[in-house]
From TrEMBL:
Span of the signal peptide: 1-18
PROSITE patterns: PROKAR_LIPOPROTEIN
Domain of life: Bacteria
Keyword Cytoplasm annotated: no
Domain annotation YtkA-like: ranges: 37-120
Gene3D superfamilies, per database record: Immunoglobulins
Keywords: Signal
Designated name of the protein: FixH family protein
Pfam families, sorted: YtkA
């Protein structure tokens, strides 16, 4: 009787070890796939001219990619801009989805200054917000004159 119980325990232990061993191999393979997925991130190539004149319409464009794939269905793609040093007084602008991975908006700056612009982008359960600057008119030079 003891020999039968002992044999059953040994067989069960071997079965459990075999199951754990094959599970490790599957997890390793799945881990590799997950690591490849984790290496991908959304990227935003954000185009803004360096300068423009007050009252001029400025085209903002962002190209959104995920790895080598262009993202044509971003959940969010908005531009936020404000005059440098005055981020509390920012303006949000919805972009137009062009269906080819590019998102565009038009903005007009009413006065000279240096403006900061974020491209708020959410896609593939990730969020990024690259920032660029644009100088309108004389930019910081007119700010320095006004502060004197």
């Amino acid at each position: 009787m003891k020999k039968t119980i002992w044999t059953i325990l040994v067989v069960l232990a071997m079965a459990i070890l075999a199951a754990c061993g094959s599970g490790d191999n599957n997890n390793t393979e799945q881990g590799s796939d997950n690591e490849e997925e984790e290496l991908k991130a959304i990227e935003v190539d954000f185009d803004v001219p360096e300068t423009a004149e007050a009252g001029e319409t400025v085209n903002l464009q962002a190209t959104v990619t995920y790895g080598d794939e262009k993202v044509t269905d971003a959940e969010e793609m908005e531009f936020e801009y404000w005059e440098k040093g005055n981020q509390d007084d920012s303006t949000m602008v919805e972009s137009t989805n062009n269906g080819d991975g590019t998102y565009t908006a038009e903005v007009t700056f009413d006065q000279d200054g240096v403006y900061e612009i974020y491209a708020h982008t959410t896609a593939r359960d990730m969020h990024t917000m690259p920032k660029k600057s644009i100088t309108i008119g004389d930019g910081a030079d007119s700010e320095a004159e006004n502060s004197d």
